[in-house]
Amino acid sequence: MPDLPDPVTLAIPLFVLLMLVEIVAYRRRARAGTAGYEARDTLTSLLLGLGNTVAGALFGGMALALFVWAGQFRLFEIGYAWWAWLAAFVLDDLAYYWVHRAGHRIRWFWAAHVIHHSSQHYNLSTALRQTWTGAFTLGLLFKLPLLFVGFPLPMLLFVGGLNLIYQFWIHTELVGRMPRWFEAVMNTPSHHRVHHATNARYLDSNYAGVFIVWDKLFGTYVPEIRPDEPDHEPLRYGLVRQLGSFNPVWAAFHEWVGIARDLWSAPWGSKLGYLLREPGWSHDSSRDTSATIKAKWAMRRPSGSYFGGTDGGQSV
Amino acid sequence: MDWAVLGGSLVAVLATAGLVAWLGLGRDARIAGDEAARLAEDLLPGFAAREAFVDSEGRSALVAGADGSYALLRLHGAHPVARHLRPPLAIRRDGADFIIDTGERAFGPTSIAHDKLLTLM
User: Does residue A27 sit at the B interface (CB-CB below 8 Å)?
Assistant: First the structure.
């Protein structure tokens, strides 16, 4: 078994360098109407990233133990052939798509993932806002089939790291669109801006990690409307209900607190819905889900229609 | 966990945020008088704005809705955040400012300097 390094740790100097380049670019370009960075937001993002590494050290062992246990039941011995690396990278990205989609559609999982969406900025520091509580969801289960098939655990951990590294650079507003062939296959800044946007038309779309083809295949792809295209609207980032706080601890735990409050106060027959239904769901329909937000937005549009992803949305 | 790496990372975090502060990025944000109503409608699904009271320095705004409810806007760093409030508002006066409390501890009270808010007390 090869002794593989943690690629994410090795990439940290690159992350810092690219972030500094982006900061300086914003300073030099003084882009009108674009507040690319803000000090308190950046501090919160980076502290949340640092907290993620601490959480990984504290709770990562649980995930590792689960993976080692699952590896006992593998059907094949795939080994470290070149094609196995490619297959592992692609299939791990497919698993990531479903983990990520669940992270947006199941409130329990969203409670861990929301931290990544809690900034109103979209820059490279936002990429480092990573979960503190991911170990307390069942997201890991989506990766177990790869172990059952027989991919070696070190290989899966390595390609998972490469996946995260790829996703770093797409968290920027400074890159418009990549060449058409690249946009067609790969996740890009343009596709991922849509994913982070809170504009109604963009909610719950583009869950891809590396390959945008998964969204196209599973009906959740929404293209970005660029400023020079008809019907463009400026993208707003963050949460539908913005936090309004730079406190990193609140950013990490606010949704867990919300779930706890709802579980406590909801009628018995509805309690599980506050854990397992989509974010915003309530037993008395007093809150907004992405579907109701899209419907309200469509009602306000002159044409009374929208085009968008199919996940949770509804055409009006 | 390597404590030296953790300490070094913390220093890098503080240095990067310090650089952003030193460069002054994101400091000039304001809520303009003519954009408060649109912001309220954009940020709060289904909200229809009727009249906007914008803070004299553009830090915040209260937007009255067509249905009698209110949108409270305030800058959070470089971007606005909003809360949907129903009357009666928890509003008090502090000198030239009016302080509106959402009841959310993490959101905190919002200060608005605008003469016409006197009519809402």
Answer: yes
Cα B27 vs. chain centroid, distance in angstroms?
14
Question: Smallest Cα–Cα separation from A15: which of A128, A120, A132?
Answer: A128
Structure-block tokens of residue A292: 């109701």
What residues of chain A lie within 8 A of the CB of B77, using their CB? 35, 38, 40-41, 120-121, 246
Q: Following DSSP, what letter does each residue of chain B receive, concatenated?
A: --HHHHHHHHHHHHHHHHHHHHHTTT------TTTHHHHHHHHSTT--EEEEEE-TTSSEEEEEETTS-EEEEEEETTEEEEEEE-SSPEEEEETTEEEEE-S-TTT--EEE--GGGGGG-
Residue with tokens 């809705």: B65
CA dihedral A152, A158, A164, A167 (to 10 degrees): -100
- Report pLDDT for A301: 77
Alpha-carbon distance of B120 to B53, in angstroms, equals 11
Tell me which residues of chain A, numbers 148 to 187, contact chain B at a CB-CB cutoff of 8 Å.
none
Q: Is the CB of A200 less than 8 angstroms away from the CB of B45? A: yes
Complex-level ipTM: 0.92
A136-171 residue pLDDT tens? 998 889 999 999 999 999 999 999 999 999 999 999
**Residue A213 host element (H or E):** helix A213-218
Q: How far away is chain A from the Cα of B46, in angstroms, using its nearest Cα? A: 6
A219 CA to centre of own chain: 17
